[in-house]
């Protein structure tokens, strides 16, 4: 698995994107809703220059009708080539660009992420999620409470599709992250990694990555993807993650 060519990583990623979520009747669109359906992400599409604008407008109309926030998760190889410009022209707001990284799991790669010197726990209750929210607030996240409620709903309704891990120093939560198991994808996704500003450069970020990788491996999966900002990409690349493709979310807020 370690020698898997980069193009095969992209093939695996696209397979998972297309296999997970609700299929629309147009443009090959695959949607994934939050548990409370207050937000929706378009994970995959197969658009052409001829139908792209019509599909975008149709998805906006559905978001307006349903009252949910719509995120179009664009990848740099998605068609048409000017899809980003079309989304912005339609009223979507671009968020930060990231890189999708992949890591095949085997004994060699797992050894790089030794967590034995750290106290990292999988949290399964509201108290643990409150600790995850504490970290979010300390680094300036404004949606910590709504995120906590959304994650708790997910843990209650579908506990097998998402886990949250938190690192502690004594009783203080200092770093955390999530791991998602997209249905029928055949891989896991790391997300939501964060470390308090007071505890950075101490290996906490890497320890939380390692804890989640150990869980992924224990569940029998051998491939992980994650979206990485420029701050975390070098840390992960140094430990074996490989860049696959760029990605950028475009967000549409429905009219009131």
Walk me through what this model shows.
This protein has 256 residues and is of the alpha+beta class. The protein has helices at 6-19, 52-66, 83-89, 107-111, 126-138, 144-157, 204-218, 233-237, and strands at residues 22-23, 30-33, 39-44, 69-75, 93-94, 98-104, 119-123, 162-169, 172-180, 188-195, 223-228, 242-252. It folds into two domains: 6-99 and 248-252, no CATH class; 107-221, Gcn5-related N-acetyltransferase (GNAT) (Aminopeptidase). The longest helix has 15 residues, at 52-66. It is globular.
β-strand number: 12
Text of the CATH class of the largest domain: Alpha Beta
Characterize the main sheet. Answer: 12 strands, mixed
* CATH homologous superfamily classification of the largest domain: Gcn5-related N-acetyltransferase (GNAT)
| CATH T-level topology of the largest domain | Aminopeptidase
- Termini separation comes to 49 Å
Summarize the structure in short.
The chain has 256 residues and is of the alpha+beta class. 34% of the residues lie in helices and 29% in strands.
């Amino acid at each position: 698995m370690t020698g898997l060519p980069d193009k095969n990583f992209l093939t695996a990623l696209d397979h998972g994107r297309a296999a997970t979520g609700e299929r629309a009747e147009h443009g090959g669109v695959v949607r994934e809703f939050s548990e409370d359906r207050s937000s929706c992400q378009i994970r995959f599409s197969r658009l052409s220059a001829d139908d792209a604008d019509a599909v975008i407008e149709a998805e906006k109309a559905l978001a307006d009708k349903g009252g949910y926030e719509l995120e179009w998760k664009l990848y740099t190889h998605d068609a048409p080539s000017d899809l980003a410009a079309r989304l912005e022209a339609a009223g979507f707001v671009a968020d930060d660009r990231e890189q999708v990284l992949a890591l095949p799991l085997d004994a060699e790669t797992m050894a790089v992420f030794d967590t034995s010197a750290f106290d990292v726990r999988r949290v399964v209750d509201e108290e643990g999620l409150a600790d995850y929210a504490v970290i979010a607030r300390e680094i300036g996240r404004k949606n910590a409470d709504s995120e906590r409620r959304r994650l708790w709903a997910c843990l209650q309704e579908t506990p097998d599709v998402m886990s949250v891990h938190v690192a502690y120093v004594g009783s203080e939560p200092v770093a955390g992250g999530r791991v998602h198991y997209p249905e029928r994808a055949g891989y896991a996704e790391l997300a939501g990694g964060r470390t308090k500003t007071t505890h950075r450069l101490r290996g906490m970020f890497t320890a939380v990555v390692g804890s989640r990788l150990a869980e992924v491996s224990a569940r029998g999966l051998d491939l992980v993807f994650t979206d990485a900002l420029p701050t975390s990409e070098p840390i992960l690349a140094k430990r074996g993650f490989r860049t696959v493709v760029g990605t950028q979310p475009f967000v549409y807020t429905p009219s009131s």
